[in-house]
């Protein structure tokens, strides 16, 4: 009798375990695949962008697309006016247009502080040629330092849940730069003419 009771308990445990495996592996599979599938952050293309405002804790930069034919694709408009580095701006633009997120969570507005989004490390405002605007807010790094919490086009509606993405730490590297790095490097081989560099005019001997 005791043996039959033990056997019955084992059968119940086996059925319970089998049911758990079924629902976890089969029923839960689509949800797991959805989380693993990377999502494009923005849908616009680089040529669609007219201007950028990059705000970090140290500075605020304004960049505009250049219409000059001197090889500069972008102009730095503030805090200084100068040709912008095509490589540095291009690196950021590539992240904005090609970057993807591999995870998204929904939180309440009062949880923004937990992800560093109440006082973000950087904010990128994007204006397109069609006058539409987008915004990317970068919070703090996640627990393993491999990704950064981010918010895309935040809603202005109060008491609405917030979607938080995990994006590449490359975004941190792209925006946390010295002002000099945003400027187009000067070619040292090209020397500008100055009065001091002019050769003195020979004097007539008497």
Compile the SSE list and pairings.
Layout: H1 2-27, H2 29-36, E1 39-40, E2 49-56, E3 60-65, E4 74-78, E5 82-83, H3 86-98, E6 100-101, E7 104-107, E8 122-128, E9 133-141, E10 147-152, E11 162-168, H4 170-175, H5 179-182
Describe the structure.
- The protein has 206 residues and is an alpha+beta fold.
- The protein has a domain at 39-182.
- It is elongated and about 90 Å long.
- Strand 9 and strand 10 (147-152) form a beta hairpin.
- The model is unreliable at 20-35 and 188-201 (pLDDT under 50).
- The relative contact order is 0.14.
- It contains 5 helices and 11 strands.
- Helices cover 28% and strands 28% of the residues.
- It has a 9-stranded antiparallel β-sheet. A two-stranded antiparallel ribbon has the order 1-6.
- The chain has helices at residues 2-27, 29-36, 86-98, 170-175, 179-182, and strands spanning 39-40, 49-56, 60-65, 74-78, 82-83, 100-101, 104-107, 122-128, 133-141, 147-152, 162-168.
Task: Sum up the structure in keywords.
206 residues; single chain; nine-stranded antiparallel sheet; elongated; alpha+beta; 11 strands; 5 helices; two-stranded antiparallel sheet
Question: What best-fitting shape do the alpha-carbon axes yield?
Answer: elongated
Separation, N- and C-terminal Cα atoms: 137 Å
In DSSP terms, counting alpha (H) and pi (I) runs of 4 or more, how many helices?
5
Strand arrangement, major sheet: 5-4-3-2-8-9-10-11-7
Average pLDDT works out at 82
β content, as a range?
Answer: 25-35%
Share of residues in helices:
25-40%
Please tell me how large the radius of gyration is. Answer: 28 Å
Number of beta strands: 11
């Amino acid at each position: 009798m005791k043996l039959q009771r033990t056997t019955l308990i084992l059968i119940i445990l086996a059925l319970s375990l089998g049911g758990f495996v079924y629902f976890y592996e089969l029923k839960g599979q689509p949800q797991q695949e959805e989380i693993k599938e990377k999502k494009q952050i923005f849908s616009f293309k680089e040529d669609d962008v007219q201007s950028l405002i990059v705000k970090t804790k140290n500075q605020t930069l304004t960049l505009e697309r250049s219409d000059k034919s001197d090889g500069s694709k972008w102009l730095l408009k503030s805090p200084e006016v100068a040709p912008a580095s095509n490589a540095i701006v291009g690196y950021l633009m590539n992240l904005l247009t090609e970057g993807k997120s591999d995870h998204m969570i929904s939180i309440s507005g009062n949880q923004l502080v937990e992800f560093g989004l109440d006082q973000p490390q950087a904010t990128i405002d994007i204006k397109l040629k069609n006058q539409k605007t987008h915004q990317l807010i970068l919070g703090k790094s996640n627990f393993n330092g491999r990704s950064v919490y981010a918010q895309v086009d935040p809603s202005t509606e109060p008491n609405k849940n917030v979607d938080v993405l995990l994006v590449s730490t490359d975004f941190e590297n792209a925006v946390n730069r010295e002002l000099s790095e945003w400027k187009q490097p000067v070619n040292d081989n090209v020397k500008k003419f100055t009065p001091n560099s002019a050769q003195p005019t020979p004097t007539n001997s008497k």
